[in-house]
Amino acid sequence: MELLPLLVQEAKAAGFPVAGAIDLDLALQDPEARFALHLDRYDQWIEAGYAGKMEYLVRGRDRRADPRLVFPQTQSLFCVALPYPAQTAGAPSPDQGARYARYLQGPDYHEQIAQRLEAVMQSVQAQWIKPESAPDLHWKVCVDTSAILERTWASLAGLGWIGKNTLLIHPQLGSYLFLAEVLINQRTGQGPQPLPSFCGNCTRCLGACPTQALIEPGTLDSNHCIAYWTLEKRGALEITEDKKAKIKNWIAGCDLCQEACPFNFKAGRAAEQTPQLETTAGDNATLLHHWLGLLRETQNDYRTRIKTSALNRVKPAQFSRNLAMALTNALPSLYSAYEIQSEPEYQEIVTLIQQRFEQETDEIARLEWKNCAESMQKIRS
Ligand code: B12
User: What percent of the chain has pLDDT over 70?
Assistant: First the structure.
């Protein structure tokens, strides 16, 4: 079998429903210069300061411009997408509990996907009858953290289009997708074959972003993005109290621009993975237990909980800061909705907030706990 159908066949067998390839020389010599257009956009984005403090995006610019700087033998990129659960993660009540972005559910996808793709390539290697003159198959698997323009290559390989929320959208599977690539030392014969955008006149994602981080269709200013604040930004957020309030109950990541997307409306899609973060539907008691569980968690508990999860990129001090902010935002509704002032569990929340403030050693997180304790005082007085 030819290399490309074999790659796609093995990827599908390994659970990647969407896969496609693109040859590097055909992308670089494309008469329509589509890769060059993407790279221009990247350069303009960095130049405008939209990367915030993500210095690695500046440092890795040249590697992004040429995958051969990531894997010298690269002749083609084999791109895959893997759906993650569409169900909400974290809060027993999405309005009042702490919410995580959906992609953080389950075990750390970086390792899982890399292992699966390695197995795909081993299997391809075993089955591929290579032309006589061709060298042996060599490859490098990249998942998220390599300096590769993942959405660019996935879109040029025909996996979907880049939506107004800047994410790759597949016409049937939507955008709740992980992207990954295998850089391969063989050509596949495939040139750029992007799908047209089906976003049409829709701008729901832009309207759904409470911080107006999507400054125009297809352009995200990270400096205003809740996902950036909660996942990437360590230390002080350097944003106004008004903006902090807009984070509401997002504790790690944010899915609002994806939740608004009609291509993600198909309920129940791809919920095959077992979520590992709490996702139980809840009553008042469950909600209180949810917050209590988070408040009682020590740094060591947190480290253990995130060891095998993608949340491990959110360090304990950062998580503590995020938790304090989310709880501060949730306090008024938590207080008034249930009139739980007298409940012992509620009293415990009050005590635990004070303790977190007193015991927190990270200066920034401590300030947020102080703010949380003061907000609680105000509500009760
Ligand atoms: C840095 C980063 C972030 C930053 C910046 C996000 C951003 N939009 O760039 C922050 C921390 C904010 C972030 C957040 C999220 N991220 Co992120 N992130 C990345 C990372 C590491 C690099 C992205 C990058 O290069 N940005 C640079 C700028 C320039 O990108 P851009 O503005 O979209 O423009 C590029 C293309 O889209 C294209 N383009 C865009 N519009 C147009 C229009 C035309 C006409 C043309 C020609 C080209 C073009 O040109 C540019 C060059 O590539 C990638 C992994 C990777 N290695 O690629 C994951 C990645 C993009 N993130 C991912 C995810 C899941 C998320 C979140 C959903 C997580 C969450 N729930 O909280 C949010 C979504 C927020 C959002 N709307 O973007 C997935 C997206 C999967 C998908 N379906 O597309 C990726 C691919 C990781 C992965 N391997 O799965 N992320």
Answer: 93
The secondary element (H helix, E strand) that includes residue 324 is: helix 316-338
Ligand 1 pocket, residue 168 CB under 6 Å: yes
Q: How far apart are CA 251 and CA 227, in angstroms?
A: 9
Pocket test for ligand 1, best of 144, 237, 257, 314 (most atoms within 8 A of CB): 144
pTM, to two decimals: 0.94
Active-site residue (options: 144, 221, 242, 255): 144
Segment 18-42 mean pLDDT:
97
SS3 57: helix
Chain center to CA of 368: 24
CA proximity to 209, closest of 266, 162, 255: 255
- Pairwise CA distance, residues 335 & 333, whole Å: 5
Contact by Cβ (8 Å): 194, 26: no
Residue nearest to ligand 1 atom 36, measured at CA: 152
Residue 43 catalytic? no
Going edge to edge, which strands form the sheet with 139-142?
Answer: 18-23, 76-83, 177-184, 139-142
Task: Map out the domains of the chain as residue ranges.
Answer: 3-84+103-184, 282-381
Ligand 1 pocket, residue 220 CB under 6 Å? yes
